[in-house]
Amino acid sequence: MGHEVYQKMVYSFEEPMWHVLAEPSLVPTSARGVLQGQFKGGFPIDVRPVYVKLNGKLHEKTKDFAIVRGAWTEDPQEEVFDYCSERYKPLQPGEIADCFDSNVCEPAETMGFLRGGREMFISWTMPELEVIAGDVIKLFGIVKYGFDTFKGASLLTAIYRPVCANTMAMAEGWAEHNGGKIWNSKGVNQNLLRDFGYWMEHVQGKALYEKELLQSFFGKLAHTPIKNDKEAWGILYDAYPDTESVSAMYPSQLRIAKEEKTLAFNESQAKVRDGIYAMFAGQGTAITPDCWGMFNSTTEFLNHYLPSKRPTASSMLFGGRNADAMKMVNVLSTWAG
Q1: Is residue 200 a contact partner of residue 143, using CB atoms and an 8 Å limit?
Q2: Region 288-296: what's the mean pLDDT?
Q3: pLDDT in tens, 217-261
Q4: DSSP 115
């Protein structure tokens, strides 16, 4: 998966983006301001009736409609995103931006369009979490909308800052496992824009409560010691277990290939376990002897030390590494109680 940003339509406040598709802004800007300024007003979304040739007649109207990304200054080529019934009422990018500005009442931290314009996201900063003195985690509120019948509207919170498809996937994965999935709805909801706004306002208004929940989660990690190597290796094997040996019932004709695949997988798991343990045992940066230290050892190894055939700047954002990190988060959540 690449960045999948459409027409370089991505915005970031102050912080550079790994894909370097656009320079960060140094001025806090509303979502509407980003849409009108950096994105030149954006594109329209139309719903148009579908016609077919039927019984020898041309342009016979059906009951289906096409969701179309209309032509605009940066892309004169229109594109059909999906098909829908007359009940489906997609929102316009400008409506989403205005809804965000009116209900969140914060500048956009990041904003962008993905997958040919099919998805739109806006993020904003929420209260920071201090797990232990000097160790701060940023939390982001994220609005996401799909201009088709699949994704719909969603609202989540995560510790990942979205600037592309990869970082959005990381944020959604984190939200899935850490109580950050707040709300979602579809375009057939006739009050979608209204409800979207209510939930934005609610999430921002409850930001301190969300902070307390996450502070509690990470605080548990920081206050749950890992007493010895046996416990450390127990956590590592729970998160990254080996695959069992090939069953004796496996067909002999396929056994060699299956055994080679199993061996390769187990060697890969061992590299991950050994690498994280090395970080935890002293090679990592400011690692504490607790579950929080194990979490930081995991992210440091996966993001900076795990061998990769891809450029380091982008490989740390891809799905496999994020999935490996979430395995550790799930195990530590259980371990810390």
Answers
A1: yes
A2: 94
A3: 888 899 999 999 999 999 999 999 998 877 666 677 676 777 788
A4: G
User: Residue 16 corresponds to which tokens in the numbers above?
Assistant: 């550079």
145's enclosing H/E stretch is: strand 135-146
Sheet architecture: strand order including 110-114: 5-12, 110-114, 119-132, 135-146, 153-158, 181-185
What whole-number distance in Å separates Cα of residue 123 and Cα of residue 12?
A: 10
Name which of 167, 166, 174, 111 is nearest 143 in CA terms.
111
Burial letters 168-186, b for 16+ CB under 10 A, else e: bbbbbbbbeebebbbeeee
The CA distance from 94 to 44, in Å, is 9
Domain boundaries, the chain: 5-42+91-217, 224-336
How many helices and strands, by DSSP H and E, does the chain display?
A: 10, 9
pLDDT tens digits, one per residue of 176-193: 877 788 999 988 898 999
User: What six digits make up the tokens of 286?
Assistant: 């400011």
Query: Would you say residue 276 has pLDDT above 60?
Result: yes
**pLDDT confidence band for 316 (50 / 70 / 90):** very low
Whether the pLDDT of residue 15 is over 50: the answer is yes
Give me the amino acid identity at 186.
Answer: K
Residue 236: the pLDDT is 97
Give dist(CA 103, CA 49) in Å, integer: 33
pLDDT mean over 6-15:
96
Segments in the chain forming alpha helices (H): 31-36, 93-103, 165-177, 192-205, 207-222, 229-239, 252-278, 291-304, 312-315, 319-336
- Which residue shows structure tokens 């400011």? 286
Is the pLDDT at 312 greater than 50? The verdict is no
Coil, strand, or helix at residue 84? strand
- CB-based contacts of 128: which residues, under 8 Å, 6+ apart? 136, 137, 138, 139
Residue 37 above 90 pLDDT?
A: yes
Rounded Cα distance between 192 and 120, Å, is 15
First to last CA, the chain: 34
